[in-house]
Design a protein that fits this description.
Oligomer: single chain
CATH superfamily of one domain: NAD(P)-binding Rossmann-like Domain
Number of helices: 30
Largest sheet: 8 strands, mixed
Helix content: 25-40%
Strand content: 15-25%
Strand order of the largest sheet: 31-32-33-34-35-36-38-37
CATH class of one domain: Alpha Beta
Shape: globular
Radius of gyration: 32 Å
CATH architecture of one domain: 3-Layer(aba) Sandwich
Structural class: alpha/beta
Distance between the termini: 21 Å
Number of strands: 38
Length: 891
C-alpha cells in the first residue's frame, strides 16, 4: 500500500506537461498543486519552459533535484511511454496518467497502453489512469486534478469514480452540501490500479468511515470482490453503477443463458460482497453520510415525530413504498406521553405533536420513541410554524440523538430559516435531509445494509453433501465430448454430471427406432416421456421434440413417427440419433429451475427460480455466486417470488422441503466450482415432491475455449472456494487423532466453544488480554474468511462423538502481498503435545505457497513456550516493546 499512499499524500510531486497556457489541463493541475506547496515540493516539467506560474521548470524528470514520490503526466499519448521510462529510471514508483488517447480510441491507442504497462512492470511502477481526472486528499492539502473548484472539506468519505467528468460534477454537488472527503480518485481506464486496490487502501485508512464508488466497469472482478468482502462489514461501500436495465447483447443457447444478463451478474457480486447499490447521486451521498456501522437499525420499524401532518403523510407513503414498516407505538408509550403533550396529539405513529411544538415537546416525544421496544429508528420532522426556533429544537435533538443506540434522522424543511439547524446536525454527524421522503429513504438504506450483513453472515448449518464426488468419471465424459468436437452434452451425459454430485435425475435410455422405443418403454413401466436425441438441438420442446404421458407400446411407436416427422421438418440439418425414453414423473408439487452461465469476467453465476416451459416468460429468478453454503443457498431462494409459496405452501400445495433445496443448490455449486469447463448448465424442470428433488431435464454446454486453454484450478471463480487440499489427518504426541483443515463459517459454534473454554492465561497469551465478549460479530471475523487473504487451520477432534475445535493457526496476509502475520492458539488440554508446532509448520508452508517473503508474529515476553518454539523454527526473535517480542522468519 506504500505506492498507493503516494497517490494521495506524496512528499514531492512532478507534473510532466506543466504549462501556463490559459484553459489547459497542465495549467489547472499546476495551480491546484501549488496551493499545497507548503506541504510538499512541486516540480513542473516542460523542456520548452524555464518557469511556469512563477515556479522553476525542469526539462525532464532526470533533471529534478530529487526523486519525486509521484509523477503526473498530461503530455499527448504518443509521448507517455518515454515519460514512464524516465520515471522508472529515476526511481519513481507511482504515476498518474491524465492524458487520453489510449485503448478508448482504437488499436493504436491500445498498443501504446500495452507498451506503457510493460515498462511499468519492468520498473515496479503503479499507475492510475490513463484518461483520468486525478486524485485529491483534503486532509493532506493535495489536489492533483484538473477540477476548477475549491478543495472539499476534510471528511470521512472516500469517493472513487471511473468517470472524471461525473467525478467533477459530484464533487461540486457534494461541496455545496457540506460533504467532506477523506480522499477522491478518478481512475479512468484502470490499466493498473483499480477499484480493488483503492478499496484496500481506504479500507485500512483510519480516517475513512465509508467508501462510495461510481463504477462503469469492474476491472478485476476477483480483486474487487476480495477487497469489498474484506471491508464492507466495517466500512460501508456504496456503489452506483449505470446500466441496471441493460440487456445482454449476446444470444444465449440455453434457458439460463437467455435469462441471466450483465445486470444480474453485477447484483449478485454486490449482494455477496455486502455492497449497497443505489440508483442516483443523491442516494450515493445520503448513504455515505448515514451508514454509521455502530448505530445501524435492528429492524424496519420506523417512528415519525412531526409538528405537521402533511409531511408525515408523505414520509409514511415513502416508507411503504420502500417496504419499511410504520412502528407500532405501545400503549405504555402513549399513556406516558398523554400528560405532557396536548390532548389533540395523534396518540400513534406518526407522532404528530402539533405545529406549536417547542423544544421540550420534541424532547419528551423523541425520548419516548427511542425507549419504545417496537421502534427501531426515528425520523424527526420540523416545519417552520409557530414561534419555536428551529435551531433551539435542533440543539435538543442533538443531545438526545448522540446518546441513542437507535438511529435518529432529521428533516428540517425550508431553506434559509433552517440552514443553521442543518449545519448543527452536520457538525454532529446526525443525518439531516431537506425533505422527509429523503430521510425515510435514508433510514431504509441503513436497514437494508444492516439486514444484508446480518443475512450474509448468518451462521450456516452443516449439510449432508459429499465434498469429494467422482470427478475422474466426469472428466472422462468431458474428454469424449471434446474429442467428438461437441459443446452440447446429451441429456444422458448431463444427468450423469448431476448424479455424480448427488442430484437425483430421471435416467434416459436411447432408442434408434420405433420398435426399440416400445420395448424400452415397456421395461421402464408406463407412463413414459419421449425426447428427441440430437447433439444439434438444445430446446427440444420448441421443435416438437418432447412428448409426455405415453401409456402403451402402440402410443410410443406412433409418437416416434410423429416426432421424427416434426423434428426433421423443423430442423432438416440436425443430426438425429433417435429418441430417449424415461419414466414420467407426473405428480409433483413444484417445478423449479436451477442453472448457471459463465461470464468471461465474473465467472459462473447460479440461478434459481420458477421452472417449466414458462420459465423464460415468468423470469421469477434470483442469482448467487459459487461457492454456496446453507445460508447463501437460502438467500438465493429468498430472492424469488416463489419462495413464499415454497416456505408456506399454497392451497393444495404443501410447504417445500427447504433443506432439500439448500442441499441441491450447494451440490450444484460444488459442481460449478470443480468444473470450469462448464459454460452453461440448467436443470429445468427440477421436480419437487416431498423429500425428493428430481431433475427431469438437464442441459450442459461446455466452454470450448477453456478446453483448448485451461487456466488452472478455480481461476474461473471470483471467490476462492474452500481449500480442501489443506485437509490432513494428524495425531498428537500422546496419540489423539485430529483433522487439520481450513476453518469454515459452519465452524462458528466450535470456535465459540474453544474461546469460551480457554483459561485466562491462554486467552491472554493469544489475545494479549482476557477475551470476554465472544459475540457473533467476532466469530464471523474468525470463521468467515477470504482464503486469498488469510488462512486459519483448525484442529478438529472427535471427543466421544462430539466434534471439538482444539487449536487454530491463523495467517493474515498484509496488503503488500509479500508478508503475513501469524498466530497460534491451542486448547488448554491439548497444550504441550506438539499441536502448536504442527500448526505453525503448516502455516509456514502455506505462506511459502502463497509467495510470501516474510512471516512474522508478535509474542508476549512471558510466553516462553511460543518464543522457544519460534527459535526452534529459525525465527529472528527481537524485543519490540518491554512486554512484547517481534518474531520474524524470512521465507
Amino acid at each position: 500500500m506504500d505506492k498507493i499512499k503516494l497517490f494521495f499524500n506524496p512528499k514531492s510531486v512532478a507534473l510532466v506537461g506543466a504549462t501556463d497556457k490559459e484553459g489547459s489541463t497542465g495549467k489547472i493541475i499546476l495551480q491546484n498543486l501549488i496551493k499545497g506547496k507548503d506541504r510538499r515540493a512541486v516540480y513542473p516539467v516542460n523542456p520548452n519552459r524555464e518557469s511556469v506560474l512563477e515556479q522553476k521548470c525542469y526539462p525532464t524528470l532526470k533533471d529534478l533535484p530529487e526523486v519525486p514520490d509521484l509523477v503526473l503526466v498530461v503530455v499527448p499519448a504518443k509521448f507517455v511511454p518515454q515519460v514512464i521510462e524516465d520515471a522508472g529510471k529515476v526511481g519513481t514508483k507511482s504515476v498518474i496518467i491524465i492524458s487520453a488517447g489510449f485503448k478508448e480510441v482504437g488499436s493504436e491507442g491500445k498498443a501504446l497502453e500495452e507498451k506503457i504497462a510493460e515498462i511499468a512492470k519492468q520498473y515496479g511502477i503503479r499507475i492510475i489512469g490513463p484518461n483520468c481526472m486525478g486524485t485529491m486528499s483534503p486532509a493532506s492539502g493535495f489536489n492533483a486534478t484538473f477540477a476548477r473548484m475549491e478543495m472539499p472539506k476534510t471528511g470521512n468519505v472516500a469517493f472513487l469514480s471511473q468517470s472524471g467528468a461525473l467525478g467533477s460534477a459530484v464533487l461540486d454537488w457534494a461541496i455545496a452540501r457540506n460533504v467532506g472527503f477523506s480522499g477522491f480518485a478518478s481512475i479512468g481506464s484502470m490499466m493498473d490500479v483499480n477499484f480493488g486496490d483503492l478499496i484496500d487502501y481506504f479500507g485500512t485508512d483510519e480516517n475513512t468511515k465509508s467508501i462510495i464508488v461510481y463504477l462503469e466497469t469492474m476491472g478485476e472482478a476477483k480483486k474487487f470482490m476480495s477487497a469489498a468482502r474484506g471491508f464492507a462489514r466495517t466500512k460501508p461501500i456504496i456503489v452506483i453503477k449505470p446500466g441496471r436495465f441493460e440487456e445482454s447483447a449476446q444470444a444465449a443457447k440455453s434457458h439460463t443463458g437467455s435469462m441471466v444478463g450483465n445486470a444480474m451478474f453485477v447484483d449478485a457480486i454486490f449482494q455477496r460482497a455486502g455492497v449497497v447499490r443505489v440508483d442516483n447521486i443523491g442516494d450515493l451521498f445520503s448513504c455515505a453520510a448515514i451508514l454509521n456501522t455502530s448505530n445501524l437499525p435492528r429492524g424496519a420499524n420506523l417512528a415519525i415525530v412531526t409538528n405537521a401532518g402533511g409531511p408525515a403523510v408523505l414520509a409514511t407513503d415513502s416508507l411503504m413504498e420502500q417496504k419499511g414498516k410504520l412502528a407500532h407505538i405501545s400503549d405504555e408509550t402513549v399513556t406516558a406521553l398523554n400528560p405532557v403533550l396536548p390532548p389533540s396529539w395523534s396518540k400513534g405513529n406518526p407522532m404528530d405533536i402539533l405545529g406549536d411544538a417547542d423544544p421540550e415537546r420534541y424532547a419528551v416525544t423523541l425520548e419516548a420513541a427511542i425507549k419504545d421496544p417496537g421502534v427501531d429508528g426515528v425520523v424527526v420532522i420540523y416545519t417552520p410554524q409557530g414561534a419555536a426556533n428551529p435551531l433551539d429544537i435542533a440543539k435538543t435533538i442533538v443531545k438526545i440523538a448522540k446518546k441513542s443506540k437507535k438511529p435518529v434522522l432529521t428533516s428540517w424543511m425550508g431553506d434559509a430559516n433552517v440552514a443553521e439547524a442543518r449545519k448543527l446536525f452536520y457538525q454532529h454527524n446526525i443525518p439531516s435531509f431537506e425533505f422527509p421522503e429523503e430521510a425515510v429513504k435514508g433510514y431504509i438504506f441503513m436497514y437494508r445494509y444492516a439486514r444484508g450483513l446480518e443475512n450474509l453472515y448468518e451462521t450456516p448449518e452443516e449439510l449432508a453433501v459429499d465434498v469429494d464426488p467422482s470427478k475422474e468419471y466426469i472428466r472422462t465424459i468431458l474428454k469424449k465430448v471434446a474429442s467428438e468436437g461437441r459443446t452440447l452434452l446429451s441429456e444422458t451425459e448431463s444427468k450423469k454430471f448431476l448424479q455424480a454430485y448427488g442430484i437425483d435425475a430421471t435416467v434416459p435410455f436411447l432408442a434408434r427406432d420405433a420398435k426399440d422405443a416400445a420395448q424400452i418403454a415397456s421395461a421402464l413401466r408406463f407412463p413414459v416421456v419421449m425426447k428427441i436425441a440430437s447433439p444439434d438441438i438444445s430446446h427440444k420442446s420448441d421443435v416438437g421434440g418432447v412428448i409426455l404421458g405415453l401409456k402403451t407400446e402402440a402410443e410410443v411407436e406412433k409418437a416416434f413417427a410423429t416426432m421424427m416427422e416434426n423434428v426433421k421438418a423443423a430442423c432438416p440439418a440436425a443430426n438425429i440419433e433417435g429418441v430417449t425414453l424415461q419414466r414420467m414423473v407426473d405428480k409433483y408439487d413444484y417445478e423449479l429451475i436451477i442453472g448457471s452461465k459463465k461470464d468471461p469476467v465474473f465467472g459462473p453465476v447460479i440461478l434459481f427460480g420458477s421452472g417449466g416451459i414458462e420459465a423464460e416468460f415468468q423470469k421469477d429468478v434470483a442469482v448467487g455466486l459459487p461457492p454456496l453454503n446453507q445460508v447463501l443457498a437460502r438467500r438465493v431462494m429468498e430472492g424469488t417470488k416463489i419462495y413464499e409459496m415454497l416456505y408456506k405452501g399454497f392451497r393444495t400445495k404443501p410447504p417445500a422441503n427447504l433443506r432439500l433445496l439448500e442441499e441441491t443448490l450447494v451440490k450444484f455449486s460444488n459442481l460449478l466450482v470443480d468444473f470450469p469447463e462448464i459454460m452453461e448448465i440448467d436443470i429445468n424442470p427440477l421436480a419437487l415432491l416431498g423429500s425428493e428433488a428430481i431433475a427431469l431435464d438437464a442441459r450442459i454446454i461446455i466452454d470450448e475455449e477453456y478446453i483448448k486453454n485451461p487456466t488452472g484450478d478455480h481461476n474461473h471463480l471470483i471467490i476462492t472456494p474452500y481449500p480442501a487440499k489443506y485437509i490432513k489427518p494428524w495425531h498428537t504426541k500422546d496419540g489423539r487423532d485430529v483433522i487439520l483443515r481450513p476453518i469454515r463459517p459452519e465452524d462458528e459454534p466450535m470456535e465459540k466453544a474453544l474461546l469460551e473454554g480457554l483459561s485466562e492465561e491462554s486467552s491472554r497469551m493469544r489475545f494479549f488480554h482476557i477475551l470476554k465478549d465472544i459475540n457473533h460479530a467476532l466469530l464471523v471475523r474468525f470463521c468467515n474468511i477470504d482464503y486469498d487473504r488469510e488462512m486459519a487451520i483448525i484442529a478438529e477432534y472427535n471427543d466421544k462423538g462430539k466434534k471439538r475445535n482444539v487449536g487454530v493457526g491463523r495467517l493474515i496476509i498484509d496488503n503488500n502481498g509479500l508478508s503475513g502475520e501469524f498466530s497460534i492458539l491451542v486448547a488448554d488440554d491439548f497444550q504441550h503435545h506438539e499441536l502448536g508446532a504442527k500448526l505453525l509448520d503448516m502455516l509456514i508452508g502455506i505462506a511459502r505457497e502463497k509467495g510470501l517473503k516474510n512471516f512474522y508474529g508478535v509474542v508476549l515476553a512471558e510466553n516462553v513456550v511460543m518464543l522457544n518454539l519460534c527459535k526452534d523454527f529459525g525465527f529472528n526473535v527481537k524485543k519490540d516493546k518491554s512486554t512484547e517480542y517481534k518474531v520474524n522468519l524470512e521465507l
